[in-house]
Automatic annotation (TrEMBL):
Record InterPro entries: NO_sig/Golgi_transp_ligand-bd, V4R
Protein name: 4-vinyl reductase 4VR domain-containing protein
Domain 4-vinyl reductase 4VR: 99-160
Organism: Candidatus Iainarchaeum sp
Residue stretches spanning the membrane: none
SMART domains per the UniProt record, alphabetical: V4R
Domain of life: Archaea
Amino acid sequence: MQKLVLAKQIKFDQGKIELLNQKLSIFPVSVFSTIVDNNPKVVPDVYQATKESAQMFANEIKKRHKFTGQQLKSWLKDIVSFAGWGKAEFIIYDEKNFASIVRVQQSPVAEISKKKGYTDHALRGFFAGGGSASMETDLDCIEIKCVAKGDSICEFVLGKKQILKKDHPEFFKSQLWWLNEK
């Protein structure tokens, strides 16, 4: 955060917060978990809205700073931490095959969710959008480990829709079911 403040890339004004000209607000993480826990039918909307917003944001950052895919990946990882979504670590980042595996420690949504399932739908969307911008192709994201299910970390797999569907059919069916209809 200190780097952003020094570079004047984060602005706090009366009733307004901006990060790189992107309007932000601070609210409890429980908003995401409560919405999804109370109405699982909104998962596609939460995922898609977050994916589209993240992709737009990441493309703007990439263009403004002339980032390579690797540089954007590192920046996005730091934003996840800065924004309080947990500590992200890329285990695999393969631009050639359009694939990534990201581990997240201390996911607040997973830690407070009342549902004992895969819960980080907004974070999945963020990784899908950021990954799509970083690798310059449309990617999606599934969560294969989750603290809410009793795992020690949350783990996400990014890839092209058809590859995720083939390699992880059970996760694809339960987390991206609406993409089967497209």
